[in-house]
Amino acid sequence: MSIHDRLRAHGITLPPAAAPVASYQPVVVDGHTAYVSGQLPFIDGKLVTGKLGEDVALDRGIAAARACGMMILSQLEAAGLIERVAHMVKLGGFVASIPDFFDQPKVINGASDLMVEVFGDPGKHARSAVGVPVLPLNAAVEVDAIVALKA
Q1: If you placed Cys at 131, which of 10, 14, 97, 109 could pair as Cys (CB 3.0 to 4.6 Å)?
Q2: pLDDT tens per residue, range 88-121
Q3: 117 by DSSP, 3-state: which?
Q4: Is the model more confident about 21 or about 34?
Q5: Structural domains of the chain ordered from first start
Q6: CB distance 69 to 115 below 8 Å
């Protein structure tokens, strides 16, 4: 089954790929590896902002991380690479949070679970989930990816 078929089967419609907000490329390919720049969470076209543990609830943070994952998929689609994904290698997750918020791994599960939903076993990956004091544009979450590509 193609990735596009899997997306349809799961009722997933990818959002348009976001344009870069600074001086970088959304996706860079080196050999059989794609590096996807950090993606921000847009839900219904609006950026999810704020800090977990302060003004963003855990379930909203999980949804924001899933939205970041959707944008990673959109960037791969825009680059013509989504059907070439051999497996997800690593996700890097950053969660804007207050000092005593400790559920960063639960938040980033929103993106991780999406990758397994879309790719199955090849969607399983290594990962980091890091709490940070602030993210670009006051985003609540940011996720980047390293992706192995089929030849």
Answers
A1: 97
A2: 999 999 999 999 999 999 999 999 999 999 999 9
A3: helix
A4: 34
A5: 3-14+29-149 (3.30.1330.40)
A6: yes
Question: The tokens of 38 are what?
Answer: 């950090």
28, two tokens: 């860079």
Q: Which residues of 58-93 are buried (b: 16+ CB within 10 A; e: fewer)?
A: eebbbbbbbbbbbbbbbbbbebebbebbebbeebbb
Output the six-digit token pair for 23.
């001086």
User: What does the chain look like in DSSP terms, one character per residue?
Assistant: --HHHHHHHTT--PPPPPPPSSSS-SEEEETTEEEEEEE--EETTEE-BS-BTTTB-HHHHHHHHHHHHHHHHHHHHHTT-GGGEEEEEEEEEEEEB-TT---HHHHHHHHHHHHHHHHSGGG--EEEEEEES--GGGBSEEEEEEEEE--
Gap between the Cα atoms of 41 and 51, Å rounded: 13
